[in-house]
């Protein structure tokens, strides 16, 4: 005959186990439901998250999420060209206020307008222009200042006197490149960011030519999973290209230091 204490212990163990299973099932089910609900929310186009003077605004975090998801976006930056060149959101296009009226997104694109919160007159003008449009659009909440405040990434011009930009660039000397196999190392892609005319006149054999001004738009042509070695017409152009690739999320790039890369004494193979 089983001892009464043993029977009570067994019952307590069984009941305790059932309680654990029930509690565990509750939290698993809760997490599953919450995750599904969160996934559904992220896949649904955001509602008008806020308004400023009757204008639909998009939170910087929402825009960043859409960019990370690869959503179809048309980013229009209406700040002045100088400010745009100094720093802008990746893949945004610079459009002056005078040209905003002719802007129209593709059918599957979400139009987001980026402005300077320090220029209320430009914002007011843009607001009036867009109020005449029948397609949906958003203004980035708090403009570029809001984007910066959220610590979201920017594409910068590349200032060699900036400690931040210096930290983005990894330099490589000609001797180091040669020691790594040089032009015989097929895992290295040479990237020439000079103009097309300069490239046709003379370039390193096997180099890929994407002019600095087109680098952001054509970054998808750079082979993935390979080390990139950049050179330009001078150290500044190469530095700016290295900065831009870093800002675009390409972290495998190295930048030649020294302007003798295309000289005959470099020992590198040239074309034509």
Summarize the structure.
The chain contains nine helices and 15 strands. It has helices at residues 4-43, 60-68, 81-86, 120-130, 143-149, 163-166, 174-179, 196-201, 235-247; strands at 50-52, 55-58, 73-77, 87-88, 93-94, 110-114, 137-140, 155-156, 171-172, 188-192, 203-204, 208-209, 227-231, 253-256, 270-271.
Description:
It is a single chain. With 272 residues, the protein is an alpha/beta fold. The chain has two domains: 50-156, 3-Layer(aba) Sandwich (Oxidized Rhodanese, domain 1); 163-271, Oxidized Rhodanese, domain 1. 38% of the residues lie in helices and 18% in strands. The strands form four sheets. A six-stranded mixed sheet has the order 1-2-7-6-3-5. It has a five-stranded parallel sheet with strand order 9-14-13-10-12. Strands 4-8 form a two-stranded antiparallel sheet. The termini are far apart.
Low-confidence stretches: 1-49
**CATH classification class of the largest domain:** Alpha Beta
What letter string, H or E per element, gives the SSE order?
Answer: HEEHEHEEEHEHEHEHEHEEEHEE
Strand portion, in percent?
15-25%
Helix content: 25-40%
Instruction: Count up the helices.
Output: 9
Count of β-strands: 15
Derived from helix and strand composition plus strand pairing, the structural class reads alpha/beta
Shape: elongated
Q: Quote the CATH topology of the largest domain.
A: Oxidized Rhodanese, domain 1
What is the CATH-assigned architecture of the largest domain?
3-Layer(aba) Sandwich
CATH superfamily of the largest domain: Rhodanese-like domain
Q: How many separate domains? A: 2
Largest sheet: 6 strands, mixed
Mean pLDDT: 85
What separation lies between the terminal Cα atoms?
99 Å
CA radius of gyration: 28 Å
Sequence of strands across the biggest β-sheet: 1-2-7-6-3-5
């Amino acid at each position: 005959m089983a001892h009464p204490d043993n029977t009570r212990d067994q019952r307590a163990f069984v009941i305790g186990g059932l309680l654990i299973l029930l509690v565990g099932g509750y939290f698993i089910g809760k997490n599953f439901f919450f995750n599904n609900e969160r996934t559904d929310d992220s896949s649904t186009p955001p509602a008008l998250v806020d308004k400023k003077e009757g204008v639909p605004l998009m939170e910087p975090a929402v825009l960043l999420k859409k960019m990370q998801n690869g959503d179809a976006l048309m980013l229009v930056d209406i700040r002045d060209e100088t400010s745009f060149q100094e720093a802008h959101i990746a893949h945004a296009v610079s459009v002056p206020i005078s040209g905003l009226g002719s802007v129209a997104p593709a059918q599957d694109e979400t139009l987001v307008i980026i402005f300077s919160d320090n220029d209320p007159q430009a914002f007011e003008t843009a607001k009036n222009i867009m109020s005449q449009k029948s397609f949906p659009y958003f203004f980035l909440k708090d403009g570029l200042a809001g984007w910066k405040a959220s610590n979201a990434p920017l594409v910068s011009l590349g200032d060699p006197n900036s400690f931040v930009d210096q930290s983005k660039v990894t330099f490589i000397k000609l001797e180091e490149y040669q020691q790594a196999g040089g032009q015989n190392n097929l895992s290295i892609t040479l990237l020439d960011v000079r103009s097309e005319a300069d490239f046709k006149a003379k370039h390193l054999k096997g180099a890929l030519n994407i002019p600095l001004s087109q680098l952001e738009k054509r970054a998808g042509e750079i082979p993935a999973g390979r080390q990139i070695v950049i050179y330009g017409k001078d150290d500044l152009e190469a530095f700016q290209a290295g900065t831009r690739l870093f800002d675009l999320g390409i972290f495998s790039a190295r930048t030649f230091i020294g302007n003798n890369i295309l000289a005959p004494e470099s020992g590198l193979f040239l074309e034509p």
